[in-house]
Amino acid sequence: MATLNGKPVSSDELLSLALVNIGHFTTMRVEDGRVRGLPLHMERLTKDCKAVWGAELDTERVRDFVRQALEGQTQPCVVRVTIYDPKVDMGHLANVGEPQVLVTVRGAGAMPPAPLRARSMPYERDLPEVKHVGLFGALHTRRSAQLAGFDDALFIGRDGLVSEGSTWNVGFVEKNGTVVWPQAPVLPGVTMALLQLRAEHRIATVTLEQAKGMAAAFATNTSIGVRAVAAIDDTELATEHAVLDRLRETYLSVPGERL
Question: Is-above-0.85 flag for pTM?
Answer without folding.
Answer: yes
